[in-house]
Amino acid sequence: MATSDPVQILLAHDRWATQNIIQACEKITDEQFHHRFEMGLGSLHNTLRHILGAMKGWGDLLAGREQSERLEAAGDLSAQQMNELLDSLSADMHESANAHPTDEIVTGSHGGMTYSFTRGAVLTHVTTHGMHHRAQCLNMLRHLGVDPLPPSSIMEWTMMADTSD
Prior knowledge:
By secondary structure, the protein is mainly alpha-helical. It has a single domain, classed as Four Helix Bundle (Hemerythrin (Met), subunit A), CATH 1.20.120. The chain has six helices and two strands, in the order H-H-H-H-E-E-H-H. The chain has a two-stranded antiparallel ribbon with strand order 1-2. Strand 1 and strand 2 form a beta hairpin. It is globular, with a radius of gyration of 16 Å.
């Protein structure tokens, strides 16, 4: 395993697992990608766009940028576009994580309220938020008959990393 740093592990796993889900979605039809489910944000498309939107919003906060328009307001994205976006958002998260200590405080506002968090709390939230919604995506893929399901757990990531050395 390349690192024992929990933040680096969470970020690398988050990117890997999200990419695996998106790549599975590249193999299904557009109708399946937008199929409505009573879970997550209602479809694979909307749930993945939400995962990426959270990465974008929290990434803006961590980088000290003005909050940009919500990704959810951007409309439809293809799985390929999501995969490309994931690359840049993940790189941005890694850059912010490496540029500042995790105990540093960041402050932002939402809905007229101001909030302060440690960078470590934000990074942990982004990665566990992604994990929560990826589990919903796996269930949607299972309901669509995708077999095998893409690997996504931290243990799968760890074991696959160990065998690739």
